[in-house]
Amino acid sequence: MAMDYQIPDGIYAASLTPLNADQSICHKAFAQHVQWLLSHGCDGVVLMGTTGEATSFSVSERQAAIERLLSSGLPRDRLMVGTGCAAVSDTIALTRHALACGIKHVLTLPPFYYKKPSNDGLYAAFDQQIQAAGDADLRIYLYHFPQMSAVPLSNALIARLRAAYPRCIAGFKDSSGDLRHMLAVMAEFPGLRFFAGTEQFLLPVLEAGGSGCISATINITCSLAQRLYRHGHGTGSSALLEEITGIRRAVEAHPVIPGLKSIMAQLSREPKWRQVRPPHMPLGAAGARALAPVAMQVARSLRHA
Question: 4-26: buried (b, 16+ CB within 10 Å) or exposed (e) per residue?
């Protein structure tokens, strides 16, 4: 019988992936960063998602990254792996690999190259992923990010998947930026664990029964976001939310992944953090200067955590 596997509610960073000068994954720095996130307010970490530049790596590179990361002793029950690919066979390979490594929770985009697929086609993709995984302990978190994938996940599809696989389809990450859509999904599927894709909507999502937030900017707002999560609408929450939102908007004024890596380079004094893979390019000197005050603000928040 399947166990009721659950990762913690709370604050999750969609982890960046540090690279070497030759653009290979820096496995040591990756493990250190994930441990740093867990030590500075994150309840969990999502590996090899959008922010981790996952689609810029091959399946074998992604698998090696997970294996090397886990060899450092990180807790599997606080990790989620991004497995969604354009090819269902790649999604299956990554899902099987996560399970073989002892990680039961995966975040899965729909196949995203062909546009306007039918719900039947999308259902078939997730159905093949689940059937091929062959593990009753698998927990899939559906990843709704239509701005990037151009393939939205409809409530009709969610309902069909939940009816067929009520334990396996465990959660939903909504990166649409549309709070009304988030609240509508939560209202229709009260048993589905729900994570907002931005700290901006953490409080209304929690109020509606959601589980927390999975966000790119939690790589740097981790301690602030954890304080907001704990305090809810208590004293100081408005100021916390304003500070977090200001940081996010400052980052979003630049390409987000290079911007976040630039801030990490400034925080760690490690220039290697600026490395990205094409089609991303490292943030230029002007962008780095513009984000320097944000790096200082983040550093202060970490000291006062």
Answer: eeebebbbbbbbbbbbeeeeebb
> Which of 5, 64, 3, 76 shows the shortest CA–CA distance to 34?
76
Beta strand 10-14 pairing with 79-82: unpaired
Q: Domains in the chain: how many in total?
A: 1
Cα distance between residue 62 and residue 83, in whole Å: 9
Domain harbouring 47, CATH code: 3.20.20.70
- pLDDT tens for 245-272 read 999 999 999 999 999 999 999 999 999 9
Whether the pTM exceeds 0.85: the reply is yes
Beta bridge partners of 142: 108, 172
Residue 158 maps to a domain = yes
- Give CA–CA dist 262/255, Å, rounded: 11
In a domain, 72, yes or no: yes
